């Protein structure tokens, strides 16, 4: 990705945190995603390489660092290359 940024909802969908892009947008809109410790206000928020996300998805809460932005929604192994797990979220995050 040449501009070095991507919409948050699109990245969440590419990284398989949600089954559809609209579900990814709903995760953000419902307040279940933080970017660098701050609650994301809009699905269109730009994320960059190195940003740390806290995602409280239905299957669990994860703290991840963005390693790549991706260009399409691929299989699980491809999606897992987009991020690294950096630890467990703080209680109440």
Automatic annotation (TrEMBL):
CDD domains given in the database record: S4
Keyword Signal on entry: no
SUPFAM superfamilies listed in its UniProt record: Alpha-L RNA-binding motif
Protein name (Swiss-Prot/TrEMBL): Heat shock protein 15
RNA-binding S4 domain location: 6-71
Entry-linked InterPro entries: S4_RNA-bd (IPR002942), S4_RNA-bd_sf (IPR036986)
Coiled coil stretches, renumbered: none
A Pfam family hit: S4
Gene3D superfamilies given in the database record: RNA-binding S4 domain
UniProt KW keywords: RNA-binding, Stress response
SMART domains: S4
